[in-house]
Design brief:
The protein is of the alpha+beta class. It is built from six helices and eight strands, in the order βαααβαββαββαββ. Strand 7 (182-187) and strand 8 form a beta hairpin. It holds the Pfam family HATPase_c.
Length: 209
């Protein structure tokens, strides 16, 4: 097991690197939108298609708003709901079974757009690793004052698949550092990979006036 411990800090990016990361994440929403807007997909998606389209555009708007706002707005984020929405996205773009084991309403203090990007990238990496014949397990839990999002795939193991852009884990690491969390990675050749994003549980403290 290897763990990337992280303490709260301000994340700085080279402009070109940051743009590449942003484009990487927007690509997922564009791919999902193209699929949902295809008339041939209507039968596969069913009556919930319009709601899914709205969900994707809302996530894009949230991400762009995050990019245009210099000050990070830390608030209470429903990690269970956010993870479910990220699972909806990757199911559309990869068609990989994503089995979601959720705890009821796990709350964390953070910026929703950055956390959405982090969870989305964990799932994106896992779906690529699982391939067309595999599956992904998504688990949200809370215990002893710590919340976690755990993503596991049954692929060949870390480093055993074609390399991606590398931007995904950078975004996950940035979220962990920004909100006082850490990343844990467990991977064995032929046994898949499990990545866990751990964050302090609970809503942000309310300051008295």
């Amino acid at each position: 097991m290897s763990a990337a411990d992280a303490s709260p800090t301000t994340i700085g990016y080279d402009d070109s690197q940051h743009l590449l990361e942003l484009c990487h994440d927007l690509r997922q929403y564009v791919a999902a939108g193209l699929f949902l807007s295809d008339p041939a997909a209507a039968e596969l998606v069913g009556p919930g298609g319009l709601a899914l389209i709205h969900q994707q555009f809302r996530a894009i708007a949230e991400l762009l708003d995050f990019e245009q706002t210099p000050a990070r707005r830390i608030g209470g984020v429903n990690l269970t709901q956010l993870a479910g929405e990220c699972a909806d996205l990757v199911r559309l773009t990869y068609r990989v079974p994503v089995i979601f084991e959720r705890a009821p309403r796990v709350m964390v203090a953070g910026e929703q757009a950055l956390l959405r990007r982090a969870v989305g990238n964990l799932l994106d990496n896992a779906c690529r690793a699982a391939g067309s014949g595999g599956q992904v397990q998504l688990r949200v839990d809370s215990a002893d004052g710590e919340a976690s999002v755990e993503v596991s795939d049954d692929g060949p193991g870390f480093g055993e698949i074609a390399a991606g852009t590398g931007h995904g884990l950078q975004v996950v690491a940035a979220a962990a550092r920004a909100f006082g969390g850490r990343i844990e990675i467990v991977s064995l050749p032929g046994s898949g990979t499990t990545v866990r994003l751990c964050l302090p549980a609970g809503k942000p403290a309310v300051r008295s006036a």
